């Protein structure tokens, strides 16, 4: 008792089956396998393309659904009565329709002024955001118009095309490009700080 190991030895976990008769494949099967243009890589590429097509079609379907829903919501909004008129005049009458008081209710006028102020503030915020976007666009245009940067960029592209197998040989062109970008950044900071 206890002399034998309770764990099987590593060599015993491997099973080898030997056949009494030799295994042979027909020449037709071997020729069909050898003549097949399909390999593991082509099968994986086909599978990848199939998945991409399915994802693309699903994205198009979702996009169409969202576009349809957006159009429906826009139509509902355009058909609904003006919400500011309802909030100012809860009874549904506009100042032109209310002839009994002879004047505009002061509370409704105050609410209208408040709404105008809110809309004025929101319009001002939107104008400020648009101005900021225009400033950013001008900066991008200045960067694009800089001929030295364009030239350095062209040199990098040219070098990479010539040395497509050895891109590290283009380090001089990259350094020139970095220097031009640093120069442009200094000019920009000089403009901003002034």
Per-chain topology:
Blueprint: H1 27-35, H2 40-79, H3 83-88, H4 106-145, H5 147-162, H6 171-193
Helix pairs in contact: 5-6
Q: N-to-C SSE series?
A: HHHHHH
**Major beta sheet summary:** none
- How much β-strand is present in the residues? under 5%
- Helical fraction equals 55-70%
Low-confidence stretches: 83-89, 94-103
Helix tally?
A: 6
Summarize the structure.
By secondary structure, this protein is an all-alpha fold.
Question: How is this structure best described in words?
Answer:
- With 194 residues, the protein is mostly helical.
- Helix content is 69%, strand content 0%.
- It is extended, with a radius of gyration of 38 Å.
- The termini are far apart.
Key terms for this structure?
mainly alpha; extended; 6 helices; 194 residues
